[in-house]
Design brief:
Blueprint: E1 2-4, H1 17-20, H2 24-27, H3 29-40, E2 44-52, E3 57-61, E4 66-70, E5 76-83, E6 87-94, E7 102-104, E8 106-108, E9 112-115, E10 119-122, E11 127-128, H4 130-140, H5 143-149, H6 157-171, H7 179-198, E12 202-203, H8 204-208, H9 214-223
Parallel strand pairs: 1-6
Antiparallel strand pairs: 1-7, 2-5, 2-12, 3-4, 5-6, 8-9, 9-10, 10-11
Length: 225
Amino acid sequence: MADVGESLGKWGWRNFKHLAGAGWVLDGGVHFADLFRFHLGSDAREVYAVTKQYEPFRYSDPKSRKGAWRVSVEDASMALISFDNDIIVQWTWVGSAAGRGFGNRVIYGSEGCIDWNSGLWLRDGTHIDNDALIKEFMESISDEQKERFFPSGITDTVAIELKDFADAIRIGTVPEVDVMEGLKDQAICMAIFESAWFNRPVSLQEIERCELEGYQREINEALGI
């Protein structure tokens, strides 16, 4: 997965490590970490990463670079993540790449690949676009499953998430993404920062057990934790 481009506008508290906890990979990246685990059906075991800050300022007007303030978060991250079942994820995010940006999110397997934007591509050249994949999926599930996945026919993903959360509060169901799922997702992101800090591969066990806190330490000290 790669998301490369330039975004130098001010973003409030997210521009400061002691307020945000880290750069975008922690804040927005956790959603992608969750999707890695969901789509691959596997848990991460080890992370090796490099992070950089190439642009030390953010601007009220990025084009003219006027109204600057100095920031303390990273704007580039490159990670190799080892999952169970011999799966490797390459995750690159850069928010300081001037000129031509690009983005690509693809899962490769032995017989082909699934592209986030264009659908399924098989070794023999067969292509099934996302609309056809969705249609095939909807035709393959029962009415009961449709109601569970898309209550009352709702397909807005945020609305579905909110209903899932509300059901957990009202009737005691277990959310699809519960606290332990969230912990494992966030641990992948924290592993990126700790790996870059210590300049070595780190295990997810080290992160989940709080055994490795180099990057995190100065935040803890500032908060008196």
